[in-house]
What does this fold into?
Amino acid sequence: MTDMTVIDWLLDGDPAIRWQVLSDLTDASPSEVAAERARVEHEGWGARLLAVEDADGLWAGGACFPAAYRGDEPGQPWTATMHSLQTLQLLGLDPASPSARRAIALVAANGRWEHDGQHYFDGEVEPCINGRTIESGAYFGVDVTAVVERILGERLDDGGWNCEAENGSVRSSFDTTIDVLDGLLEFERSTGGSAEVLAARTSGEEYLLQRNLFRRLSSGEVVEPRYLQFAFPYYWRYDVLRALDYFRRTGATPDPRMAEAIEVVRSKQQPDGRWLMERVDPGRVHFEIEGPVGTPGRWNTLRALRVLRWWDER
It folds into this structure.
């Protein structure tokens, strides 16, 4: 980069990036942040995603999968309602905006899970799906207490969660655990939570921290190489940048056991101060938000900078 700073480059991006840069990296005034955030509904990625919503309020005609999906295409399609609502939340669509209120009312009325036709905000059986349902529901003002109560009863003995528990798994997974943690944190922020929710969230955090956010407890080996590759949107998938950004959002003092993961993030900063897009999960999308792999990514750069700021100011 020549005369442009990294912050300038970020602010030259989509409104969804700009308002978060103003909030998290430049300490702009609340009114300035709110004005920029309001643009998400009408401009850029947020407006584009809202524009492809179906008349019944769903996306691609389905809850987890598009209506026409037959399992015969590369990767998992990311166009259905669950992924679209999560993306709108990450973009920062104001839950009080007319578009959000309309969409959520229609999803509540018309959304049904492919598993067994359950109402959308009642959740289904997999904690990875239910964690994300809790997160988007709580963010957009839906009462998801019943799904939270189910999740609390599905915590495994090692402190986390696993979508394969219904098939006999007794060990937690990083992917499912971060989905549930994101959901419980949003529920707490929206409702005040409870002692039971906090205890469950703390146990899930401990599951990750005991493993330094990416290592096997038994051997110290890296669990999955992709945990060290940063993608956006991340959908249901785990990586250490997503985990660190979760811990940042809790407002807690950074735990020393995050240090190695922090160094992974720091080591990936390019000489020009930016971070690259390292992974794009295969599957159908409405449109590309970032990419291709190997090019500078605004989302990865924003998230890395705010995580490092949180860590360095501890």
